[in-house]
Amino acid sequence: MRPSRAYLIWIHVAAVVMALVVLAPFAWLVISSISPPAELLSPHPHWWPDHPTLERYRAIFGSEGGGGDVAANFRSAMLNSFVVASATTAVSLVVGVLGGYAFARLTFRFRRTSLFGFLAIYMLPPIALVIPLYLALANLGLLDTKIGLIVTYSSIVTPFCLWTMSNYFLSLPRDLEDAARVDGCSRMGALVWVILPLARPGILTTGMFGFLLAWDEFLYALIFTSSTQSKTIPVAIAEFTGKHSSDFGLIAAGGVLATIPPVLLALAFQRYIVGGLTSGAVKG
Amino acid sequence: MRSTVREADRPWARQGAGQHEGRFALLLLLPAAVVVFGVVIWPVVRTLVVSLYDVDSAMPGSYPFVGLDNYVRVFQDDRFYTVLGHTMYFTLVSTFLELALGIAVALLLNAPLRARWLWRSIVVLPWALPTIVNGALWRWIYNGQYGALNGLLDTLGISETPTQWLGEPFLALNMVIIADVWKNTSIVVFFILAGLQTIPSDLYEAARVDGAGPWRAFWRLTIPMLAPSIAVVLILRTIEAFKVFDIIYVMTGGGPASGTQTIAFYTYLQAFSNQLFGYGAALAYLIVLAVFALAMVYLRILKQNQLAGVE
User: Fold this and answer.
1) Best of B21, B29, B232 to disrupt the A interface by mutation (most A CBs within 10 Å)?
2) pLDDT > 70: percent of chain A
3) How many CB pairs below 8 Å do chains A and B form together?
4) Per CATH, which fold does B86-310 belong to?
5) Same-domain check for residues A29 and A138
6) Rounded to two decimals, what is the model's pTM?
7) CA dist B253 → A193, A241, B82, B165, B265 (Å)
8) ipTM of predicted assembly, 2 dp
9) Mean pLDDT across chain A, nearest whole number?
């Protein structure tokens, strides 16, 4: 049955409306970031600035002068977020892929129990752990360090990687692996040489989700970090929002920069997200 | 029943292979166990212990053991019921809106649109926007003096008198919910899309042949077939809403007049502003209990889905 013309027009109109609702706040973020302060603070909003300026981006990226502390804070916070989220993703992926394979392919005692144990940790609200973790990190001298954040984040992102990878492995055909073993591969050999290359899309998608989780985390970073050494971009933005709520231009510029990496990742992996969610959450 | 599924699931599991596999499994799982439990176990135990003591400052020292008093105090605390009310309201309204909008948008994205990848790419964007940036952005949009929302209402000629969107407790709570829904509907859409793709299209053909219109097909076919995805979304979003903290922190700081304080935010205030660590720990453990109860329901549903898939 071919859809009728009226139906096709209707769904495209609906799609355009939906796109407007989604894109308008993004547009406002970008426009605010290039509007001069006087236009931002005019009683009637300038939907497009008369005198657009890239001053704030220059201040954030320029190595010296201009913009002062706040811009410099955003710059170091971006770097910290990159380091922390990348390292967290790397650690969690490696241990998550190995463990996920065990859950998917091996029979062992306490398999279900330990899987639930990992899942329970993932579901714990951070507010329940933040105080004793703070004290523990203080004892180890890891407060206000990137390492402290990486260690903490890895403990949250790893269960997520375990879960999605284990479901991904379950969706792979087992014949190839069996064939490799018949051909004399050890179990480890079959995993490294046969399964991992096959699992690449799953590993990359899981890595993307993990990176986004770490990039977005706020509460731990808020409590554990206090200087430009380790503050991440959400903390820098939240802090600045609280202190100078009317100077939104610079917040917007920082927000645009903080949004670019996750948006690029999400767009690159967009076609895998549906599959990733199916294997991660619906299939169990 | 369970054992037959397990066996059907793993025909290769020979008698005697167990021990060897167990060792290999241990080897593979050990790194993950160290990374996760090495960090988490001590805080989990420690919070439980602290919740049994009357700890009222950050200084180390000896504090009186009070047993379950902190928990009893939670249930005698009027503010607890108020913030619980906010949390329930936030959870119910945001989850319902996200689900309703999510299903609508997913159906739209599943329709024969031109350039489908383009619309899907647009829908994924709010999900990728960091939560804190989302909160800061909407706080700015709602700004009473310079905000875009008042500006838009003015430009469209709907209202010239500016509204302080975050200025009244109940209004502020609703505005925060809108900001949350705008962002999180995105991921719900993708969950529902994943569910939609498992519905065989010949079922719709059969429904059409039987004379069912689109509306009837939606309620009698699409919704029941989506039930597992909907259940998963409901539970996951409810758990997230129970933990909601970031967006409150950046948009309202719990105000005005504590009107947007949720349970996680209240716990944070008790522990970090009032230094009532024992009380905060008890609150935290109650959140843990609630989340785990929801998680059990979630896992049960997953298992049912799995069994349904086996059949």
Assistant:
1) B29
2) 93
3) 297
4) MetI-like fold (1.10.3720)
5) no
6) 0.89
7) 52, 11, 16, 14, 9
8) 0.91
9) 87
